[in-house]
Amino acid sequence: MANGTGRSIPHYYLYGDQGADVELDFLHVEPIRDRSGPNDWRIRPHSHPDHMQVLLVKSGGGSIRMEEQVLSIPAPGILVVPAGIVHQIDFNPGTDGFVVTAALGCLKAASASDARLAHASERPAVYPLEGTGVSIPAVMETFEWMHREFIWSAPGRRTAIMAQFMRVLVVVLRLNVSHDDPGIAAPDRDYDLLVRYRGLLEEHFRNERSLAFYAGDLAVTQARLNAACKARAGKTASDLLYERIVIEAKRYLVYTESSVAQVAHLTGFDDPAYFNRFFTQRVGLSPGAFRKQALHHDS
Predict the structure, then answer these.
(1) What are phi and psi of 245, to 5 degrees?
(2) Which of these ranges, 126-130, 131-135, 159-163, has the smallest mean pLDDT?
(3) pLDDT tens, 61-115?
(4) Collapsed DSSP state (helix, strand, coil) of residue 181
(5) Where are its TM segments located (predicted)?
(6) What CATH number does the domain located at 14-178 have?
């Protein structure tokens, strides 16, 4: 299989829809067989610009290609696919396990108390569970519990899912520490630049709108930064900046009682009217209308 170019490899967003806004900063859990079985147990080459994945392979196996490396899938085993990594999976028929697809915002929230959790999740890896000292029954239970909470609508569902996701990240961290070489080649310079740019966005997106600032900090030209973002995320550097601002605004609108003017200030806008236009242009609803719709959906 040829790896292809960034132009020919699909960028899949949550549920494959770039415009989807369902649980934008949350995660999705499904059995491996749900998506792979109907597709002859093959996941064709693609990447997730805004989501990372952790897979538990309980039984079966197969092979996974991440970037230029092809590795056998151990069973039981854990696969870690960071955001932006091009990958293809060929499962053995009947392979059993779970796929957790987590938005980068969800990963950030879950790893807030320990930066090592996020760092371990940024390393593409294939880890066998046998002989690692990690409790295999506990790992199985964690994924099964997370899936059970995901498909139910019981009180405290979101909190329960996040608790299990944090347990998954701890497992990934411990496997990462115990494996010096997970067998995956280092990503290319485009990927490295995108990861560093996202890190800068987290620090400065509220107060810094100039691409010249970010490019300067990264010691590249704006054209080079844009090329890397397009190749690895399918978006321009400005798109990623504005998208991060919108995500933060949505969080304030949904999860706090701050007024629209206060949300404008919290996301770095001096003029609430300009924030209103900025948000409406990119979301298709005014901030107030978005809040009403989101609260109605959750009620």
Answers:
(1) -65, -45
(2) 131-135
(3) 999 998 878 899 999 999 999 988 888 999 999 999 999 999 888 898 899 899 9
(4) coil
(5) none
(6) 2.60.120.280
Domain ranges of the chain: 14-178, 189-298
CB-CB contact of 66 with 81 (8 Å): yes
Beta partners for 116?
none
3-state secondary structure of 168: helix
pLDDT tens digits, 175-197: 998 876 655 656 688 988 988 89
H-assigned helices in 30-87 = 32-36
pTM over 0.90: no
Q: Does residue 126 contact residue 82 with C-beta atoms inside 8 Å? A: no
Phi then psi for residue 62, to 5 deg, are 135, -145
Q: Which of 47, 87, 108 is nearest to 244 (CA)?
A: 108
Is residue 263 within 8 Å of 253, Cβ to Cβ? Answer: yes
Superfamily of domain 189-298 in CATH is Homeodomain-like (1.10.10.60)
- In the chain, DSSP finds a helix count (H) and a strand count (E) of 12, 9
At residue 19, the pLDDT reads 41
What's the helix, strand, coil split of the chain in %, to 5?
50, 20, 30
pLDDT at 5: 37
